[in-house]
């Protein structure tokens, strides 16, 4: 029975991470934009996402549900793989997932008005996204290879 549950869990998680990997493919193009284009895109996406909801409360509830989905899938993967190195990688990746989500609500000023704080947020957001993307690939490989 335990083996059947583990096989089902792996199949569900591989499916989840594979779909997420397909979405990451689209995000790679965004992460490689120039700074000015990335800032314009980030501000547009934030405004567009918030405009789809009737209130900020509903928007933030949806964001929290998305974060919880990511963190639960990461925890579930750690339980299935139960390797020390993967637990450490998952812990670090969860911090970056939270960081990227929190910084997603940051509104960037025009490039001419950038200060040190704005540059820091810009690069931390990019690095957090890249680390999260790499984790998805590692998790997918680990689920398929480690028994």
Please, could you describe this protein's structure?
- This protein is mainly α and 147 residues long.
- The chain has 5 helices and no strands.
- It has helices spanning 2-31, 35-51, 56-81, 84-103, 116-145.
- The model has no long low-confidence stretch (mean pLDDT 87).
Contiguous runs where pLDDT drops below 50 for at least 5 residues? none
What does the largest sheet look like? none
Number of strands: 0
Radius of gyration: 17 Å
> Count of DSSP helices?
5
Helix content: over 70%
Describe the global form.
elongated
Proportion of strand residues: under 5%
Order of helices and strands: HHHHH
Distance between the termini: 16 Å
Structural class: mainly alpha
Roughly what is the average pLDDT, rounded to an integer? Answer: 87
Main traits of this protein?
single chain; 147 residues; mainly alpha
Give a short overview.
The chain is mainly alpha-helical and 147 residues long.
SSE topology sketch:
Blueprint: H1 2-31, H2 35-51, H3 56-81, H4 84-103, H5 116-145
Helix pairs in contact: 1-3, 1-5, 3-4, 4-5
